[in-house]
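Subject: Interface between my chains keeps coming out wrong

I've been trying for a while to get a sensible model of this assembly. When I model each chain on its own everything looks fine, but I need the whole thing in one frame so I can look at the contacts. Pasting all components below, labels as-is. Any help appreciated, I'm running out of ideas.
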Amino acid sequence: MRYHPLTDADRSSMLATIGVESVDALFAELPAGEPSFDLPNQQSEINVERALNAFAKENLSCADAPSFLGAGNYRHHTPASLDHLIQRGEFLTAYTPYQPEISQGTLQTIYEFQSQVALMMDMEVANASMYDGATACAEAAAMACRVTKRSRVLMSGSVHPHYRDVTQTQLKHLVLDIECLSPDPIGIEDLIGRVDDSLSCVVVQNPGFFGHLVDLTPLSEACHAAGVLLVACVAEPVSLGLVTPPGAMGADIVVGEGQSLAGPASFGGPGVGLFATQERFVRQMPGRLCGETVDADGRRGFVLTLSTREQHIRREKATSNICTNSGLIALAFTIHMTLLGEAGFTRLAEVNHANAVTLANKLGAIKGVKVVPQAFFNEFSITLPKPAAAVAETLAQKGVLGGVPVSRFYPRYEELENVLLVTATELTTEGDMDLLVESLTEVLS
Amino acid sequence: MTDYTNTTSGNRGLVFEEPLIFELDSADSTGVDLDAPEHDMDRLGGLRRRGPVGLPGLSEPEVVRHYTRLSQKNYSIDTGFYPLGSCTMKHNPRLNEKMARLPGLGDIHPFQAESTVQGAYQLMDTLATWLKKLTGLPAVALSPAAGAHGELCGLMAIRAAHQAAGNDDRMVVLVPESAHGTNPATAAICGYSVESIPGNGNGRVDVDALTARLGPDIAAVMITNPNTCGLFENEAKVIADAVHAAGAYFYMDGANFNAIVGRVTLSELGVDAMHINLHKTFSTPHGGGGPGAGPTVLSDALAPFAPVPFLVHDANGLHMAEHAGDKDAPQSFGRMKGYHGQFGVFVRALSYMMSLGIDGLREASGDAVLNANYLRVRLSEELTPSYDGICMHEALFDDRFLKGTGVSTLDFAKSMIDEGFHPPTMYFPLVVHGALLMEPTETESKATLDQYCETVLALARKAKRGDAAEEFLSAPHLTPRRRLDETQAARKPVLRWKPEPLKHAAE
Amino acid sequence: MTDIRYTKEHEWIRLDGDSATVGITDYAQSQLGDIVFVEVPDEGKAVTKGAEAAVVESVKAASEVYAPVSGTVTQGNAVLGDAPDTVNSDPAGDGWFFKMTLTDASELDGLMDQAAYDAYLKDCDA
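Reply #2:
Try treating it as a single job with all components included. I did that and got this:
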């Protein structure tokens, strides 16, 4: 087997050193008998490539069709140098940086990641990453309960349905009550009227799942007056290049999904959970943190720190059970943000928004189609005169990935049956938009 | 002797000093050129950002050099031997990376019309088939994102099963004292209290103490097998039978599944649930801390409670059951991860499994255990193994061999760094004093192991000579940074770069 | 000489009239190593003998500090927030954790005096 360096001669000589007859004799404590597995034997690289290519060919890649898909997962351009850098073996094949003397590369990139995330969110501190946006949201709600010593959570209908579901699952044995308001496609729910001092936190998303941009300031003021924390989710961090960040609107914990800046969608995973908060809450934060210090020669260096919050030290009293996080995806995020810089990030967000506005104008001109949000970033919901799932399927058959039907997330809400989420990014061309308009007009006529 | 290492630049030959990106900032520089938008119509509803984000600007060559230089400050499997116990640092085949980047696998969106992603579904279904056959259990939840997340999946299913049976007064989970910290932390998220089970003096669970504690308040027992001392829990089936007789469930922590893959099934061991770390056993890269994937196999008793999403076969092929409570998933405990799980990790793991096949996987566990035992026997010449006899994929030593030398486990491990080796896992498991846990994996050659053994033996002899303690205490000496002041880092946390306070008043 | 009593968890308690001061012993701080963080209870908090009252952390360990007796906290040592190393340098003095009033002064009788604690420490090191 090409990945196994030992030769038969090596094995014989090593067995002699150990003093056993055979490799199988090393397993004498396992139950006797050979289980039968009914699985194929080893294969050449050529054959494995063929087999996996066969799976790939059964899929319609976003590389081969105009895509307007979003709903928490966004397709942006990935600079060529990004993928090259994250494949350097010293990054790709390193473990968690537990030995700081020989992990300064990973540690400094984590420190840069934490700094960038905090700046983007306009928060004081950020951690080294969570699994994804949905689990980061659940961790934020749990943290709010620890900070406030209260156990009720209120989740807005603007929050991504997967974030809502994961939060409900992960907190079901910890928290008294998680109230999820009905999905809010029009953006009219009254959160402020529901804030009271029994709540640990209110969880919102901006831009919302249906695309709305909302000023969170009045809500954060109402929350703080009642001792409630405001948790804000950002599913599309490219928006932060143009839109006022949650921290500037009074959010206490900001979480998000970094995938859109970290590379291709990869069918939704792995992503990278972003998690930021204020310094006074840092000891209640979940996940790893990297901090600056000095070495024995007085030179600046970086280490993992405040580890007493974590499972390997605090065990059942830890702030979370997370161990492995999304290190490599966080690195990709950081490299992309560094490549962009202030000017590139702002420009990227401007192009996304301009394309979305153009697309909204074009789609809104189709008979029977209505663009729902007044204010949005690069994604918005539209209502169709027909069920959106069937429309999306027909468009896909025509080679256009035309949007995400909301019914996929909310099958039990009939009033959402005709709602489609549509996204435009810097990759969306005028030709793509015209093709969507043409195909959609045809499907609806 | 003249010290020639104090250079003007701070660089030392190929070892570069590298500032933070914020210190390399040239305002307005960027590594990404984008055409200006066609128009500036604004539908932001008055929420346009009022000030800059504060990000530094760097050109592409500066960015490439910065991260390349940083990468060179890392130890990695590609560059050296990484015998980090319980972490399984094996070779990461690049075929897996290439496959994950096929546009038909990497560049697909989780919410495309299902008819356009049947290949992705088939790939996931194939992976699920492999995992079920390798473990002998009938169901697998693919979506958990890592080992600890898989533990949560298993315990959530266990709690759901107890609730469905009206047994929700079982609120205690038993965990051996040698367990990973994730086990008790996970049990706590499920609302369980945790009780520790002692060892039996031979590095295994004290079965009598365990069975004596079983009763109507016990929800589950979590046992790592092979355990964190690198030993097979040879009474696993006895434990499982006792656990089941007491009405509880048997969770096996699969962190060390790589030692036994292809040699035993979990059904033989009476397991109800086990997570599989694809980033350990199935070679997907650790990436400096993740991502991982922790698919969790489930017994018939727990399968109905599996989390969404999961694949369902129907007349049109495969579709994803995405909603707990719907007809496809009436008893599911809910969703624990966005989208469909760590698909990119699935592709890499399946690429590895197909490359090895069942014969290659058996060879992998065989060579991993052979390599560990070879280290155990050779190093026992100077080091003190914690337990006698054959170990599985990792060999555990304690610090008795350092007694009276003035050198601690930490110092000894740090001195290995100067010799070009990554240290083993230190001070874990907690059940032996000053632990050194070494896991060589199957992807190391005999020549590498021999060089490692000779080096470690020489270090041990040097420590025992008693005249070199200072060299150990100040190690490592040859790294980009010497020992870091972790006390200062924790006392006065500096967790991010901050702009200098505005200086205009002084100018 | 003031009456100082000790617990098996290496806390000390010193009675001054109706009020008492609680800290951890020199042995405890030496076992923990460099202390990086201390969380002391707020004024007015009711504590129960043997239950968790404060937390003390080094880089690689976190330990609970238990109330030696039941009562009400009258003051936490605010100095430890910015200078947790005071516990290392002066555990029996400026490194105290909190002051409290006692519900039942007779609970002190169950604790070790200096001689008993010194003997106990010999066992700990054995």
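Reply #3:
Confirming on my end. The mean pLDDT of chain B is 95.
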